[in-house]
Amino acid sequence: MDEEYDVVVLGTGLTECILSGLLSVEGKKVLHMDRNDYYGGDSASLNLTQLYRKFRPNQTPPTELGRDRDYAVDLVPKFIIASGELTKILVHTDVTRYLEFKQIAGSFVYRDGKISKVPSTEMEAVRSPLMGLFEKRRAKKFFEFLQSWRDEDPSTHQGINLDRDSMKTVYEKFGLEPGTQDFIGHAMALYLDDDYITKPARPTYDRIILYTSSMARYGKSPYIYPLYGLGELPQSFARLSAIYGGTYMLDKPIEAIVTDDDGKFVGVTSAGETVKAKQVIGDPSYFGAGQEGGKVRVLEEGKVVRAICFLNHPIPGTEDSDSCQIIIPQNQVNRRNDIYIAMVSHTHNVCAKDIYVAIVSTIVETSTPELEIAPGLSLLGPIYDKFVDITPLYTPTSSGEADNIFITRSYDATSHFETVVEDVQDVWKRVTGKDLVLKKREVEVQG
């Protein structure tokens, strides 16, 4: 391996694959390596054999689950927000030509012991059991205020300054009840906890507008999802990279990250051979994740617990939806963080017919993580099989600009990819020294 590359990328998670695709398009010479024999890293979609091998190495999958090849089970449950940043990247890079998308049928919220649909139209809002009659009027005024807001027109501001006033102030101005605040902050703005309430209202305003514009785009829910699972996303960016000259090597154990006397990155050793490059980008598992004094540390929120569940029925109370998201706001179950349920089915080509895959996840707060997702598991009805995973959340300890080692972040507990794109934009700026700029086009979605 005498060739020298501009960038070596380690790990084929979505973040790494987007970066290698974008860097290849920019004309960089990219070598992409992964110790696994499949794409996706922590964000892979596994077939039945791979899933059982990962969680229960001594057990073969039960025959009643059907054929191995019918399955593509996501390890990290996330949906794509229709008008969000990942959609812009997919469209900008034209990666959409490798993918087919289907809509997620419904978005639900847990409140007062039952599941209710997050209203997607004004008519649904009027009928929704989430609010009483007078509260509906107040909420209508609140949403009208958000939709008509124009930065340059003070007459639309109603005395509010989004950059100075807290979200608490905005809620109080419209007299919204705590339950409505919960539903807006968690089911629409998609915050994991209530810290946002005391902060300036602008980010919450942006998030609600993103949600409502995504909802308006295809109706039903603001989310879309790739057929054959989320593992299709990293593979599609890998294809993009390959078209522009990127080189891929799977099943390559990484033996050493090589640095010079000043601690600067010079190459990567695999199978006794060292490949030289100017920069390295990789996920935390390649840089001493879990070791003291490594280049990554565990985030304050610590760990995420996820339970992958096979069901042979839709989730009760979701109008027999073939796919959905259910958010359990933390206040409803006396927690600090929300619990998420993401469900997909054979209509997304990720499991056999009459099987449903539901993933329940949250940020770990106690020494008994599995008990923490119990409120979510109890909504699923009878569970055929369940795989529980507890994953630490890592972040790099430095920007990488001093040693040319650029480390991505672990996939967080959010139910969508917006934070992944923030990480892509952040790493891109550190690696190239400039902002990532995207063009706009449209995405096609199946009904």
Automatic annotation (TrEMBL):
Task: For this entry, list what GO says about its biological process.
Answer: protein transport; small GTPase-mediated signal transduction; vesicle-mediated transport
* This protein's GO CC annotations: cytoplasm
Please give the Gene Ontology molecular function terms for this protein: Rab GDP-dissociation inhibitor activity
One Pfam family, short name please? GDI
- State the family named in the UniProt similarity comment for this chain: Belongs to the Rab GDI family.
Q: What is this protein called?
A: Rab GDP dissociation inhibitor
